[in-house]
Structure formats: C-alpha cells, structure tokens
Amino acid sequence: MRLSTEWDRLELNGGRVRTVAPDTYRLELPPTAHGYADAQFHDYAGRRRSNYEWRPGTVLRLRARFSRQAGELAGTAGFGFWNAPFGPGTGLTPALPQATWFFYASAPSDLPLAPVDEAGRGWFAATIDAGTWSALTWAPVAPAVLLLNQFALLRRRLWPLVRHALNISFASIDVDLREWHEYRLAWQENGCFFQVDGAPLLATPFSPRGPLGFVCWIDNQYLVATPRGRVRWGVLPLSGAQWMEVAEMTFDDG
Question: Averaging pLDDT over each range in 10-24, 140-154, 190-204, which range is the top one?
C-alpha cells in the first residue's frame, strides 16, 4: 500500500484545505462574487510530467461527500489522475490532456466527453488520452470535423470515431452527493474500472499511458467545449459556501 502524506496545497480566493478528522480532508470555498476560487491538493508541484508518480497498475479508493446535491453545487470538483495539462498550479507548458478520474461539472459546463448530443456535465467517471497516435491522426482534419459536426447526422457518425481515437469513456453517477459514498478506480494496462459503493459503474478498455499526477479539488469555474466547436470558459459566483470531503484514501498496487 502507498499513501502520500506530503500533499501540495493550492488555496485561491478564500479556498481552504483542512484536516477535519483522521484521514479526512475538507476542501471548501467561501461565498465568492468575483474571481477564481479553488481548494485543491495534489502531488505534482515542481515535477516534470515524465516524473509524475502514478502509472497503470494503480488502484485508488476513497470515500467522499459534498455539501450540495448535483445541480446545486456550482463549478467543478473531483479526484483522480491527470497530466495537469494547463491551469493554476501546474507551472508547466500546456499539453494534450490525459486523465482517468471521477469528475463533477455544473451548468453551463459542457465537456466533450459524453456520447454525442448528450451534455457533458454532472457527476461522472471518465477517461481521456488525447496524445495517442490514433488521436494525433485526427489533428490535420480537425477543422473539417468541426464543420461537419454542425450537421446532426454527420455528427452522430463522426463524433463516436473521434471519441474512440481520444480514448474517451464516460459514465454518469446517480447518487445523492450529500451522502458518503465509496469510490474505487482501478487504472490498469488493459483498461480502467470504476466502482461506486462496490457496484461496477464503468469498465473501459481505454487506459491513459501516464505517468499522471493525483489531484483532488473543488472550484468555481466552468468550461464549454462542444463537438460543434463552441468554446468558452469562466467562473461562477457562489452565493454560499460549498465543500467536498474525502476520507480513507488509499493507493494500492493492483
């Protein structure tokens, strides 16, 4: 068993990471009218991506709950593994994204992870690896794909092919976020396997190559990036405080 105790914290615009009980962390955001707020801990600060700790053969287990139900929680939140391709605290040049994680995104976010014509938001498990050879072969024709995706019939044929090339998988999670739930992610060479409360949620053959860093966060941002080429991002005002708690977090060699 491996469990890191030396987390790097990122606390912006009033965001805080607190230890509220043994093996229990609370990531909280205050009411915020303006600006980006974030409460986060991770293990990759100051490292080159090639030196990130986690690779296939890792099993993450933890328990988590939120202060608000899905749809009431504003911004994004989650936990899992990614290559920190951009954003505060990465301190690195941008990269094509790799990730396997549990992710929450509120409206108006719409991420290009869900199946065609479904909104990419809510509480879900997902994978992506945009740097594979199959993904890069689509780069020269990306403008044409965006143009063709404006037509529903063509989009329904093209976008599943792009999702497969990008190693994208997606499964919504229908639970009360205010209650404690157990989450398990087995990131293996032959795929990623997600469970919630001991029940299988998603088994996908897609597995990011890694190495990746671990991240756990809650913030007030949104991102829209649709298959039709619509892109915008920003921050959401928070009328009240909100938080996420994680507990009993372990990393096993699986």
Answer: 190-204
